[in-house]
Design brief:
3 helices, outer membrane lipoprotein receptor (LolB), chain A, 15% helix, 233 residues, 12 strands, alpha+beta
Length: 233
């Protein structure tokens, strides 16, 4: 095996360098107090129509917990993914430190889903990709106003066509841009704009109280048998 192959192999020298670089950037991200940005998400693939979603995010650290508000608005036909529907006209998600509230409107009717408050760790996901794939730090590029470290990740073999590229801010650790291409050719691109770091976010942005006439569904609760009384919040 050539030196280049050893470096590019899963867990190889270049992957180790990528992990060390990612760890350093995550420390900068974890030092942030508040984050506000607008994210544009585009998705297209051979088996689905192209879609675009605009996502506005407010985040505030409370001790070791991130509180969050995410407002998503679909432009055109929106893909449905995950256990909870995106909704016909977008959604609002609030993580208040105890619960995650997701409000959607489907066919003109508002519904609210409540789950446990868990915020996914994007760094953990990228770290897993690096460990099982070929990874390389491609240097530094400017995205908007942010100077970024570029991570290029490709399949562990020629038969694996999936690949990803991430642009991570050298200053804040924010993932400013990403492109993910799946095995079937589906491409998802995410990019941030209007980034504000360590600004003021009112507490009212990070709390949620469902309207009295809106149905609230507790996703984490097991289904009830017919005839059993409905549990109330």
């Amino acid at each position: 095996m050539t030196l280049l192959a050893l470096c590019l192999a899963p867990g190889g020298a270049w992957a180790k360098d990528a992990l060390e670089e990612l760890d350093a950037l995550e420390k900068k991200y974890n030092a942030l107090k508040t984050i506000h940005y607008v994210q544009t998400v585009t998705r297209e693939g051979p088996k689905e129509p192209a879609s675009k979603t605009t996502v506005t995010v407010w985040m505030k650290r409370d001790g070791n917990v991130w509180k969050l508000r995410r407002e998503s608005k679909a432009d055109g036909q929106q893909s449905k993914s995950g256990p909870i529907a995106v909704g016909d006209s977008g959604s609002v998600t609030v993580m208040d430190g105890e619960s995650t509230w997701k409000e959607v409107e489907i066919e003109g009717r508002k519904m609210v889903f409540r789950t446990k408050a868990e915020l996914g760790n994007e760094f953990a996901a990228i770290r897993d990709e690096i460990k099982r794939s070929k990874a390389e730090v491609k240097g530094s590029e400017k995205v908007g106003e942010e100077q970024c470290v570029v991570f290029a990740i490709s399949g562990a073999s020629e038969r694996v066509k999936a690949k990803s590229t991430y642009w991570v801010s050298e200053k804040s650790g924010l993932i400013v841009r990403s492109i993910n291409i799946a095995h079937d050719g589906t491409k998802v691109e995410k990019s941030l704009s209007k980034i504000e770091i360590n600004g003021t976010i009112p507490d009212s942005k990070l709390t949620y109280e469902p309207a009295a006439d809106v149905m609230v569904m507790d996703v984490d609760q097991p289904p009830q048998e017919k005839g059993s009384p409905k549990k109330t919040p």
